[in-house]
Amino acid sequence: MVKKEPLHPHQRDLEDTPFTHYQIMTTAITELLFQKNIFSPDDLRAQLEAIDRKGPADGARLIARAWVDPDFKERMKTSVNSAATELGLDPGNIPILAVENTPELHNVIVCTLCSCYPRMLIGLPPDWYKSRSYRARVVREPRTVLKEFGTEISDKVEIRVHDSTADLRYMVIPMKPDCTESMDESALAKLVTRDTMIGVTLAKVPD
Fold first, then answer.
1. Which of 85, 100, 172, 201 is the most buried (most CB within 10 A)?
2. Alpha-carbon separation of residue 201 from 85, 192, 198 (angstroms)
3. Beta strands 96-100 and 105-110: pairing type?
4. Pick the catalytic residue: 111, 133, 164, 186?
């Protein structure tokens, strides 16, 4: 009789492994801030829930403004955080760097260690962004990975992969599609998706 493999093989849960140095530090600092009344557990919970509600709309607004305002785009490339504040958006406290796609260069974002990502502007990272496969492969074979997303980049175009960290996040300014000169910012923002700002897809072409 052949022994069947279980449908769901055991995977070690977070509770099965010891806390890392950084997890211990995070817990200790959080508890200290609670004790000092810097903020309360309810404040922390509310902030986490606000982040969970975020989507890509704020990031899309930034891209649309950058497409129609070259001066704003240059300020955004210097500091996404400052540019976002100009539009009344909350980008969070971690610095975010914008990288611009051009006819000669295509940018892709990854976090090879975990899932660092500009959540306040783009929303929660998709599962594939956090997967070990994407984190490992997009660095080694970015053209192949992009093709799996339906994005074929010419061999004449350089592909540059940017590795996000806990201290610096990235977002892509995609190329503005053709035949969009008459569109206002609101319409342009609808052409920008989460995956566009990660760099695995291009901006949508208007109907």
1. 172
2. 26, 10, 8
3. unpaired
4. 111
Catalytic residue among 40, 79, 82, 115: 115
What pLDDT does residue 24 have? Answer: 83
List beta partners, residue 109. Answer: 162
Report the C-alpha gap between 98 and 93 in whole angstroms: 15
Say whether 179 is catalytic.
Answer: no
| Predicted pLDDT of residue 53 | 63
- The stretches in the chain having pLDDT less than 70 are 1-17, 22, 47-54
Domain annotation for the chain: domains and CATH numbers: 55-198 (3.90.330.10)
Active-site residue, selected from the candidate residues 82, 114, 131, 186: 114
Question: Which residues are CB-neighbours of 138 under 8 A, at least 6 positions away?
Answer: 108, 110, 145, 161
Q: What is the pTM of this model?
A: 0.77
**Residue 114 designated active-site:** yes
